[in-house]
């Protein structure tokens, strides 16, 4: 049996897809072709890699629905999987499936929609997915499977080695209690919940002892992590105690969740917690932020950034910004560019606003014209490229620990990809002077 996984969307999806790939291989399946697992254990993105001439018996499309464009891309990915893998069971899971299950079920009788939590529980428990998905079970009855193994046995296996990323992601949180007016993820993912801290520490320790040199903590709203009295800062302290060598990277975190304890911990860790944060801004206009239902003003965000730079001068700061949100004026956009320059972002992910049906913003009558959005997106992207060059220029000649991710390529602590000597092995964490 052969499988393919099409991964769309956020870093949490990537971790979930890698967990699923491991589960499928435990069932005796193999990925189609060598390109099928790419660097992450999944087809990285619809349209990015083909499955060669190899056909899969089982295709999973892990979907995204954060924007209208993401929704279109998801439907295209499912149609492509049906077309390129005739006869395969196509399982659609993820956020888009949670919102519009009927849309995908109507595409073809081979499509099976499965809830994300069901997929996650099956992957982590070691239960055969054939028992979970009737359509797959029909095809697997005559095939040998590693079924019914205890949950602990599954958890002992690690997403390391060929086909899996060098920076290993650990999902510690899911769901979101916020309701930004442009976003529907809180509906698709549900209320926020967190994994038990003891479980996270055990998983981290296993990766550390296996030689993994960087672990990325991920979650839909990571900063809300809470297990009893253990918050994200306390969890990080426990992880630091579990390994003296493995670097920890915090994935995207909401501004309001960055408190003094977390800032102090990053500052005192000496790089063991990567001095890089992805801190979504979304807009530099306080008026637009209010209409997005973002819980801060532009000034509050800038003050937080000033505190971060003061405590962690080496900090590299990346962000997300939406341009062309309904009602955004030229003045609003100018404020966004001003804030971006003041915050000295090392990378800006620019998103032209895309209507997502079912959100308040999509119903507004003051939508920004596509041409205006395109112009603003280009201008902000140009600014972002300049800021990134400036941020790296300031680091030239300084020493950072670099994780070797492929032959001749590495990722710095500050999240810049650089060329490294071929003498270093993939997975090494080495101190280098940045060229």
TrEMBL record:
Domain Radical SAM core stretches: 162-390
One Pfam family here: UPF0004
All residue ranges annotated as the MTTase N-terminal domain in the record: 1-130
Coiled coil: none
Name the UniProt record assigns to this protein: tRNA (N(6)-L-threonylcarbamoyladenosine(37)-C(2))-methylthiotransferase MtaB
Originating organism: Raoultibacter massiliensis
Recorded superkingdom: Bacteria
Cofactor section: [4Fe-4S] cluster
UniProt entry keywords in alphabetical sequence: 4Fe-4S, Iron, Iron-sulfur, Metal-binding, S-adenosyl-L-methionine, Transferase
SMART domains: Elp3
PROSITE patterns found in the cross-reference section: MTTASE_N (PS51449), MTTASE_RADICAL (PS01278), RADICAL_SAM (PS51918)
Keyword Lyase: no
Entry keyword Hydrolase: no
Residues annotated as signal peptide: none
């Amino acid at each position: 049996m052969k499988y393919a996984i099409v991964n769309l969307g956020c870093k949490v999806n990537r971790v979930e897809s890698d967990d699923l790939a491991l589960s499928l291989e435990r069932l005796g399946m193999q990925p189609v072709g060598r390109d099928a697992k790419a660097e992450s254990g999944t087809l990285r993105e619809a349209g990015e890699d083909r499955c060669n001439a190899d056909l899969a018996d089982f295709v999973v499309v892990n979907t995204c629905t954060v924007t209208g464009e993401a929704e279109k891309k998801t439907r295209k990915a499912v149609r492509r999987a049906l077309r390129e893998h005739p006869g395969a069971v196509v399982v659609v899971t993820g956020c888009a499936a949670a919102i519009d299950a009927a849309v995908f079920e109507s595409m073809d009788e081979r499509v099976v929609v499965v809830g994300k939590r069901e997929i996650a529980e099956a992957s982590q428990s070691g239960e055969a997915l054939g028992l979970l998905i009737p359509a797959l079970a029909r095809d697997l009855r005559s095939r040998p499977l590693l079924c019914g193994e205890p949950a602990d046995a599954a958890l002992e296996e690690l997403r390391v080695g060929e086909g899996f990323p060098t920076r290993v992601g650990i999902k510690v949180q899911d769901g979101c209690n916020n309701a930004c007016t442009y976003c529907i993820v809180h509906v698709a993912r549900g209320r926020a919940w967190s994994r038990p801290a003891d479980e996270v520490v055990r998983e981290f320790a296993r990766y550390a002892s296996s030689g993994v040199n960087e672990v990325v903590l991920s979650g839909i709203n990571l900063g809300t992590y809470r297990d009893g009295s253990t918050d994200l800062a306390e969890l990080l302290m426990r992880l630091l105690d579990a390994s003296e060598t493995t670097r920890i990277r915090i994935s995207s975190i909401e501004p309001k969740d960055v408190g003094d304890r977390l800032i102090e911990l990053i500052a005192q860790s000496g790089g063991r917690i990567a001095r890089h944060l992805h801190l979504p801004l979304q807009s530099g206009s306080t008026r637009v932020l209010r209409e997005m239902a973002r819980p801060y003003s532009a000034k509050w965000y800038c003050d937080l950034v000033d505190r971060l730079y003061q405590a962690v001068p080496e900090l590299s700061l990346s962000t997300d910004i939406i341009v062309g949100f309904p009602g955004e004026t030229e003045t609003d956009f100018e404020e966004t560019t001003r804030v971006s320059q003041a915050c000295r972002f090392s990378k800006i992910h620019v998103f032209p606003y895309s209507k997502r049906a079912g959100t308040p913003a999509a119903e507004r009558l003051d939508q920004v014209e596509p041409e205006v959005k395109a112009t603003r997106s280009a201008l902000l992207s140009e600014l972002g490229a300049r800021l990134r060059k400036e941020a790296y220029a300031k680091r030239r000649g300084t020493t950072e620990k670099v994780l070797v991710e492929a032959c001749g390529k590495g990722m710095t602590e500050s999240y810049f990809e650089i060329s490294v000597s071929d003498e270093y092995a993939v997975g090494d964490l080495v101190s280098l002077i940045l060229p």
